[in-house]
Specification:
The complex is a heterodimer of chains A (about 300) and B (about 140). Chain A is an alpha/beta fold. In chain A, a hairpin with a 2-residue loop joins strand 4 and strand 5. The two termini of chain A are about 30 Å apart. With about 140 residues, chain B is mainly alpha-helical. The longest helix of chain B is centred in the last third of the chain and has 21 residues. Chain B starts with 13 loop residues before the first helix and ends with a helix. Classes of the chains: A alpha/beta (about 300), B mainly alpha (about 140). At the A-B interface, helix 6, helix 7, helix 8 and strand 14 of A face helix 1, helix 2 and helix 3 of B.
């Protein structure tokens, strides 16, 4: 197996006539935390469902731990921990029952680790899942995915609907896990500040197409926002290779670009700019500039 | 260790913020040569950020001569002047940083006297005492 536990290879997925994922090429490196971002309906969940064999790709494929997802052996599924978007655990089961169920299902289940984490998180063993708080349910879902000690963890918007305090606890549990073994994680989220805390790499999908795949640090140091002013009405934006978004202001032009400072300054000077200033960009602003609405978003799935 | 802080919403990469935060604490005398930094795992848990980010910051600090590590013992603040950067290079960095700050101050209409006053105030907050004797 390569050192990419997850490989998307020209993966394309349609639902009827709707193209959910378009020719996705993406490798997730071992031992790193990769965040898959995108607005609702951008194709994140579809890509993950194809990856885990829940959804047949229309064209192309993906490989999970070196195995084609069109024919995933059970043994391989057992090596992957997965927490679904809005994870639903059977509400009438007691915490100890679902733990026992998971233990019986996964041969690699680590009972000592599970006990230790349950004590740390103070999960009440005898309580029914329906009576747990949302935060406890999310932590339980993460623990159930972690206890079989998976090689790979896939989290589809695990923090959805959690308040800030509970999300922080969830992140702490996730950090604990990464700190313990440097495991490979792929997760999706809409909370950009969470992504900045835990991600090594960021991949951004926009309208089914992959727009960014880069280490987070590199991305943050490369992307800048530029403002140029002109005497008179601003010209149309220069054709720069790393241009992400441009929009006119009263007597100027805003650009968000990954292009080198020299190339942007050069292009603006050629257009006759009177002043050119630039500033670094937070990930949240980059995300918005990359995915700014061109048409109404469809529902996420 | 309460003095190391990072802010995920800022545009600077987190590892860079952590590097700057350690350098700042050293310059202010809050961290002294021989002081031990928390382990990667401890600090990851405390700041709730990816341990890989902490490890990267620690590597950068060590290659900048701010810290040293002893196998099995941990990461410690180095004696001042352990930097492997040549004086010429550290002066170049300072010049560039100052130029950026001055351009910004100019844009906001500060005059030279005000800038000089602020500069000396800031300088007084840092621990440059040994520098004078060493020069």
């Amino acid at each position: 197996m390569s050192n990419h536990p997850i490989e998307f290879d020209r993966l394309t997925c349609y639902y009827g006539k709707h193209k959910a994922v378009d020719t996705l090429n993406l490798n997730i490196p071992e031992g790193q935390v990769t965040a898959l971002l995108g607005r609702n309906g951008a194709g994140k969940t579809s890509a993950i469902r194809c990856l885990l064999g829940f959804q047949e790709p229309t064209r192309g494929t993906a490989r999970l731990l070196g195995h084609d997802v069109r024919a995933l052996p059970y043994e391989v599924r057992g090596r992957v921990g997965y927490v679904a978007e809005a994870e639903r655990l059977i509400p009438w089961m007691r915490v100890c029952d679902i733990v026992a169920y998971q233990r019986a299902t996964f041969p690699t289940f680590d009972a000592d680790y599970c006990d230790q984490q349950m004590r740390r998180l103070q999960l009440p063993r005898r309580r029914r899942i329906g009576k747990l708080s949302r935060g406890m349910r999310a932590q339980l879902a993460l623990l159930l995915a972690l206890a079989p000690r998976p090689e790979l963890l896939v989290l589809d918007d695990p923090a959805l609907g959690l308040d800030a305090a509970v999300r922080r606890e969830f992140l702490e549990a996730m950090i604990d896990m990464i700190a313990d073994e440097g495991r490979t994680v792929l997760f999706t989220s809409h909370i950009i500040s969470d992504v900045e805390r835990v991600a090594d790499r960021v991949a951004i999908l926009d309208q089914s197409v992959l727009r960014v795949d880069a280490p987070l640090d590199e991305l943050k140091s490369r992307v800048r926002r530029w403002r140029a002013e002109f005497d008179g009405p601003p010209p149309s934006p220069p054709p720069l290779p790393g241009l992400i978004r441009s929009r006119p202001s009263t007597n100027g032009l805003w650009l968000t670009a990954t292009s080198s400072a020299e190339s942007v300054r050069g292009a603006f000077q050629e257009l006759g700019a009177t002043t050119v200033v630039d500033e670094p960009l937070a990930l949240e602003d980059l995300f918005i500039d990359l995915t700014h609405p061109q048409e109404a978003a469809t529902c996420d799935r | 260790m309460a003095l190391l802080r990072v802010d995920p919403t800022r545009p600077e990469p987190l590892f860079q913020q952590l590097v700057d935060s350690v350098k700042d604490a050293v310059a202010r005398g809050a961290l002294r040569p021989g002081d031990q930094l928390p382990s990667v795992r401890e600090l990851a848990r405390e700041l709730v950020i990816n341990p890989n980010t902490i490890a990267k910051a620690y590597r950068t600090l060590e290659s900048d001569g701010v810290t040293y590590s002893r196998r099995g013992a941990g990461t410690f603040i180095a004696e001042r002047g352990s930097s492997t950067l040549r004086p010429k290079e550290s002066k170049r960095r300072l010049r560039e940083g100052l130029a950026r700050l001055l351009a910004d101050a100019h844009a906001h209409g500060l005059d030279a006297a005000a800038i000089e006053k602020l500069f000396h105030e800031a300088l007084a907050k840092f621990d440059f005492a040994e520098e004078a004797t060493r020069e």
